[in-house]
Amino acid sequence: MEKIYLLLSNNPMAAEKYREDRDIELSYHEEDSFRDVLVRARDLIHRGWHLMTHPQASNLKPNQCPYKTVFLSKGRAAESEEREIELIEAAIAAVDKFTRGMQAPRWTEKALRDFQTVDLSVIESALNSSLLHQMILNHQ
Asked: What is the number of other CB atoms lying within 10 angstroms of the CB of residue 111?
């Protein structure tokens, strides 16, 4: 059975947690940057996928966290395709704005684990929200 939910991420902690999920397909790209994940999400939106989480859902600026996880659906759309494209393009523009002319920091392993935890908690919070949770349950 084809899964209609997709978790797109460069976060190894998110990949580990959702690797065996029966309802959510995992698209894990370890070498991708924060921006690369957003570009992949944009490309998927152009191919009929829909944003289920806001691409800028966290208090961390793109230059503060190397990890990004986005939840998409093949079924229902929370927004119009035009609005989804606007959201993802705005997120990509924000990354470009905050990282222009900057070199990526060299984070310690502890800092990287902390960033993975923050990114995972943002996506888990979204997945556990009552509306999103109900949508997933309705497709089982």
From this structure: 13
Q: Which domain holds residue 114?
A: 5-138
Provide the whole-model pTM: 0.88
Number of domains into which the chain is organized = 1
- What single string gives the DSSP state of each residue in 71-139? EEESS--SS-HHHHHHHHHHHHHHHHHHHTT-PPP---HHHHHHHHHHHHHHHHHHHTSHHHHHHHHHT
- Measured CA to CA, the distance from residue 58 to residue 90 in angstroms comes to 14
List pLDDT tens digits, range 43-96. Answer: 999 999 999 888 887 767 777 889 999 999 987 666 678 899 999 999 999 999
Q: What angle do CA 32, 26, 42 make, to 5 degrees?
A: 55
DSSP letter assigned to residue 10: S
